[in-house]
Each structure stands twice: as C-alpha cells, then as structure tokens.
What does this fold into?
Amino acid sequence: KTPSSITLQWNNVTDATGYEILVDGTLDEAGNVTSGMIHSAKAAEGETSTFTHTDLNYHSEHSYYIRSVNAAGHSRWSAVLTTRSAEDPFRLTPRSEERRVGKECR
It folds into this structure.
C-alpha cells in the first residue's frame, strides 16, 4: 500500500472468469449490497488476481468484500477486509517555520 492506494491480492478460484470487489460498502443479512461501489476485475493468468484502489486520502480506512464470477453466476461475498492506506510520507518533514526557528537556535 501507499499513502494514496491499496492493492489487494487473492488466490484465484477454479473456473472464475472474474471478480467483483465491493469497496467501502455494506451487505445485509442475505448478502445483498446495500451501499458502496462494485468494481470488476478479470481473473488473471496464474495463481493470484489483484485489484488496486487508487486516489485515496492519506491514512484513510477502507473496507473490501470480494466474490468470484463465472458464466453460472457468482459466489457469496468474502468476509470483510478492512485496512488503511499508508500515512502521509511528508508528516515528519519540518514546516518552514520550524526550519527557520532551527536556524535561529544555532
């Protein structure tokens, strides 16, 4: 992850042609989507597939559900995964006032 993106990676499901990723959403007791944005991703060659959520605020929390899709329909949603983007990479950089004070103390 970076300050402005989170990349998810999961093992491919046999016979899956793609995946749906519910971002920052909620499900009701029956597994129906009640809020959030659904993104689609094609099943990648090999053993794993990925999805990158971009344009995030620094150190912001996001939740994800994933389900596989094929010609017969889709699986149930996964358990929720909640994570944060990385912190602001400049959070420890002194502000201009702090640099000026530092020079005056020499």
